[in-house]
Amino acid sequence: MNKFAKSILSVSAAAIVATATLIPAGLVSAYGDNTGTKEGRPVYTLDQINAGELGDKITFNSIVNDGKIGDERNFVGARKTNGNATVYNANSIDVEDGEVYTIRLYVHNNSPKGTDGVAKGVGVSFALPTAVAKSQTIVGYLDADAPATPTRYFDEVTLNSSDDFYIEYVEGSAQYRNENGTFKLADTVINGKTLIGYTSMNGEIPGCFKYDGEATIQVKVHKSVNAKVSKTVRIKGSGAKFAESVEANVGDEVEFQIEYVNLLQDEVKDVMIRDVLPNNLEYVENSTYLYNSNHKDGILLPENTLTTTGLNIGAYKTKGNAYVRFTAKVVDKSIACGKNQLVNWAASTVLGKVTKDDASVMVAKTCNDTPVVPNTNKIVATGASDMVLISALGAGGLVSIVSYAVVSRRKF
Fold first, then answer.
1. Same domain assignment for residues 87 and 231
2. Long-range pairs for 127-130 at CB < 8 Å and ≥24 separation?
3. Which of 103, 258, 396, 412 is the most exposed, fewest CB within 10 Å of its CB?
4. What is the pLDDT of residue 129?
5. Are residues 215 and 235 in the same domain?
6. 339 lies in the same domain as 202
7. Do the beta carbons of residue 175 and residue 160 sit within 8 Å?
8. Has residue 80 been placed in a domain?
9. What is the pLDDT of residues 175-200, one digit of tens each?
10. Bigger pLDDT: 375 or 135?
11. Would the CA dihedral through 81, 84, 85, 87 be positive or negative?
C-alpha cells in the first residue's frame, strides 16, 4: 500500500475500527513521547504522508488531521460504557457514581508501506490512579521496538466529579479490536506492557489505516469513599485462591479474607473492621488473624469481636493495606431445600464513612431425596441491628488493640 487515503471517505468501512473522538474546543490533552525534545515527535497531515514526507520511517499516532479521531496525539479517550458507543471524550469527562466507563487507546502505524512497514514489539499499557480525589487521570502508553521513532507514546484522559471518588479496574475487561475481530488482553495491561497485533497479539502491526485498532479497558466509579474493602472466601485448609464465592456443605469450615486499603492521601488512624455473618454461618472463636507490613506472617487477634462490635486494626498511611482472615462454620439453622446463597458482608469505618463488600458461600440442600432445584435462596444479614452496628464502627473506637501501623502494601 503506497498511499494513505486523503479522507475518511477513502477508507473502506471494514477498516474503520476506531470510533469518533470528541475534543472540546480550546483543550489540549497532555500527550507526549520519549523523543527527549520539548516539541516532541514530528507530526504530519494526510497530504504530507501521501506526498512521501514520512519516507520509510515508522511512527505511530502522529497525524494531525486523521479523519477518524482528528489529532492522533489525542489517542486516549473515555466514554460511558452504556452510553454513545461512537464518541469518546479525549481530554476529560464528568463521571457518575456506580457507572462503568470505557477507556480507549487508539493505535495507528502511520507508515504508508503496509506490510513492508511492519512495526514490531508493539504493546500497550494503562496507568490508573489509586487514591480518592475529585479528579482522576488515566494515562495510556503505546510502545514499539526500534526502528519505530519514537519508541514510546503516551496520552491521558481525566475523569472529573464534584465529589471525591476512586476508580476500580473491571477485571477481564481489557481487549484489542481491529478489522480481524476482538482479542482479549491480560489484566497485566494495567501498569505492564501487553503485546497487541493485527492477526494475533504477536506485537506486529503493519502500516496504514487498514491495520489500525484500539485497546480498551473498563473502570468503575465509586464515590463517597476513603477506603477500598475487598471480601473473598475459600474452603478452610484447601490452599485454593480466595474468590468471590465458594461452594460448601453443612459442616464445612470456610476461611474469609477482608482486605483494607487506605485510599486517602493522608494517614488514617483507628481503622475499624467488622464482619456481618448471615444465619447458617457461625464464627469460629480464636480464628481472626491480621496481616500487614508489621506482621507479614500474621498475628492472632485475641479479641473475638470481629463479628460483633468490630476490631480496631490501627493506623495506615496512604495506600497502606491490611488483611484480616477468620474462619466460619456452615451450620443448618434455616437452610432451605435447593441452593442457598449465604452472603457475608465486611465493612470498614474510617472518619465516619463506611465502605463495604461481600462474599458468598453457596450451599445446596436436598430434601426428601428430591433433586436440588435451580432457584437460589439468598440469605443476607440485613437486620436493623446489623446496619446500626456497621454505621457505629469507629465512633469512639469500640475495641482498642495494639496499633498496627502499615507503611507499605503487601499481597498474601
1. no
2. 127/190, 127/191, 128/167, 128/169, 128/190, 128/191, 128/219, 129/166, 129/167, 130/166, 130/261, 130/263, 130/319
3. 396
4. 84
5. no
6. no
7. no
8. yes
9. 999 999 999 999 989 888 999 999 99
10. 135
11. negative
